[in-house]
Known about the structure:
single chain, 232 residues, alpha/beta, Undecaprenyl pyrophosphate synthetase, 6-stranded parallel β-sheet, 8 helices, globular, binds farnesyl diphosphate
Amino acid sequence: xxxxxxxxxxxxxxxxxxxxxxxxxxxxRIAGHREGASAVRRTxxxxxxxxxPILTLYAFSSDNWSRPRPEVGALFTLLREYLDGEATxxxxxxxxxxxxxxxxxxxxxxxxxxxxxxxxxxxxSSMRLRIAVDYSARETIARAARRLPRGSESPREDLSRLIxxxxxxxLIRTGGEQRLSDFLLWEAAYAELVFLxxxxxxxxxxxxxxAIEEFSRRQRRFGRIDDAAEAV
Length: 232
Ligand code: FPP
């Protein structure tokens, strides 16, 4: 990546294509998730090396509960292994981990692993790693709306504060589909979207660099017009 490339402050990734990656190799879908967990380790390392301040990964959507129980169980096992296995390394690299989404439906041992990993990494100040688990943007927005002060004079700002997530600059989705799937809908209002055909288990530093290059080529106008056009 060129040194002058503008980097996004907040990068968010929909990690899609694990199942298809596995099935196309004659493997069970869970093997795709296992490779996906390796891609998470690689990507966090790459993001840190590239100096990305905030990275949010979509690990388990609230709609994923409808998957077969063994697959859901395997996803939680991988998440727990990741949290327990990586927390010390994340701490040593100055990465603060936060898990977003509902916790009340997660298995106790997953909640415990989240609490441990968040505690271990709490002092990290070089990068924020956010992992979305049992996450639904619509539900997050609806919950925030319920807490909006009655008669608020600045509902947009108040809602942003209650939702709490930083605005997304770059949103990447792997696996070839081109949709948001209830991910960070409020925060991604002005995100640049990059859709990649590569399945998540194959995602590497070069894909991340290419997405950042693409981001830095986009003209972000936030609804405004260019200065040059204004002069006409
Ligand atoms: C989407 O692929 C991916 C998921 C639902 C789970 C993502 C989980 C991981 C990458 C591993 C565990 C997470 C961490 C943070 C260690 P899909 O199964 O929908 O793929 P498909 O569209 O090909 O079926």
